[in-house]
Hints:
The protein has 179 residues and is an alpha+beta fold. The protein folds into 2 domains: 8-145, no CATH class; 148-179. 27% of the residues lie in helices and 36% in strands. The chain contains 4 helices and 7 strands, in the order ββααβββββαα. The strands form 2 sheets. The protein has a 5-stranded mixed beta sheet. A two-stranded antiparallel sheet has the order 1-7. It is elongated, with a radius of gyration of 24 Å. The mean pLDDT is 84. Zinc ion (ZN) binds at residues 77, 79-80, 82, 138-139, 147.
Amino acid sequence: xxxxxxxxxxxxxxxxxxxxxxxxxxxxxxxxxxxxxxxxxxxxxxxxxxxxxxxxxxxxxxxxxxxxxxxxxxxxxxxxxxxxxxxxxxxxxxxxxxxxxxxxxxxxxxxxxxxxxxxxxxxxxxxxxxxxxxxxxxxxxxxxxxxxxxxxxxxxxxxxxxxxxxxxxxxxxxxxxxx
Length: 179
Ligand SMILES: [Zn+2]
């Protein structure tokens, strides 16, 4: 666990009962997390501006968290390559348990031993947000403005060129053979 993370929850010092914490999520969260492959899949995230509100309920053996993430991530449009804002609004539960030998870490359960005092929420916040990112991000599908027309014209031209090239090449080759 990195102490440098901006998303540390100091569980031992939390008061019993209900409390809240707030974290501000920026692009930094996506840079330091996930496997190399996962990071490659999210290279198109330009920036992030998300508020994570965490509602905490602490008892002696268990801490329940309700994490609400609201804001936007800025991504590259899959069609015109211009920036595009994707709205993020989601909520997830997470549980932290103390010192149960019989308990194991699960998808939404973190088990701490007696010496651990802090939980890094970075990985959990990352997963909550990343599942909200559509597989395909393009302008105009959810009212996020229109695709860049100039870029679309260039891409269309390029596509046509590639297409023509592919069409002509085999014929030229055939002609060459006739000589
Ligand atoms: Zn676009």
